[in-house]
Amino acid sequence: VGDSSVLACPRKPNITMLMWKISPKVGGRCSLGYRTDTNTTDRTNCSDSMNWKFRPDLGPALEIQQVGIAQEGNYICEVVTPDGNFHRTYHLTMLVPPRPSLYCDEHGHPVCEAAAGKPPAQVSWLLESNSSLEVESHDSGTVTVLSRLTACSTNVTDTTCVVFHPAGNWSESIAC
């Protein structure tokens, strides 16, 4: 999220036309077209954050600037040549790292929270298993996962929470 993403079309000789067909999960479809014989581009319902990017190492590609959850979906590039039509499909999914935190609640129980991640983070406790889990989905498509330790071993002074997420893992210890 927030970075630019570049999706490449199949590299073929003698291209006559290129077309990106974009079907986001949210909102309407859009398309970007390019004809080599007239050197013209056409845009239908696509936001200004999506543009052609021509680089020698990639060939024709689509650049999406400041990618957000609204851009999730299917992206199909169709390349037309005298030898036939060639397709490449991308399924664009956002990875949003959660904001982890560890604190003691009003009852002195450790609480571990992984806020606003996508996909949802996995939260667990090191050496402890008695916990409750709350999951809250947000309109943005992100999810907050909260784990409250309900019982602690009496011989353990520090409790460690571990958050697992594809964007990176995190752990911290606390004594309540």
Keywords:
single chain, 176 residues, mainly beta, Immunoglobulin-like, 2 domains, five-stranded antiparallel β-sheet, 15 strands, 0% helix, 55% strand, transmembrane helix
Write the layout of secondary structure elements.
Elements: E1 5-8, E2 17-24, E3 30-35, E4 40-44, E5 50-55, E6 59-64, E7 73-81, E8 84-92, E9 99-104, E10 110-117, E11 122-126, E12 131-137, E13 143-149, E14 159-164, E15 170-174
Antiparallel strand pairs: 1-6, 2-3, 2-7, 3-4, 5-6, 7-8, 9-10, 10-13, 11-14, 12-13, 14-15
Family: Belongs to the CD200R family.
Membrane topology: Single-pass membrane protein
Domain Ig-like: 60-175
What does this structure look like?
This protein is mainly β and 176 residues long. The chain has 2 domains: 5-92, Immunoglobulin-like (Sandwich), CATH 2.60.40.10; 99-174, Immunoglobulins (Immunoglobulin-like). It contains no helices and 15 strands. The chain has strands at residues 5-8, 17-24, 30-35, 40-44, 50-55, 59-64, 73-81, 84-92, 99-104, 110-117, 122-126, 131-137, 143-149, 159-164, 170-174. The strands form 4 sheets. The protein has a 5-stranded antiparallel sheet with strand order 4-3-2-7-8, with no helix packed on it. A 4-stranded antiparallel sheet has the order 9-10-13-12, with no helix packed on it. Strand 5 and strand 6 form a beta hairpin. The chain is elongated and about 75 Å long. It starts with a strand and ends with a strand. Belongs to the CD200R family. It is a single-pass membrane protein.
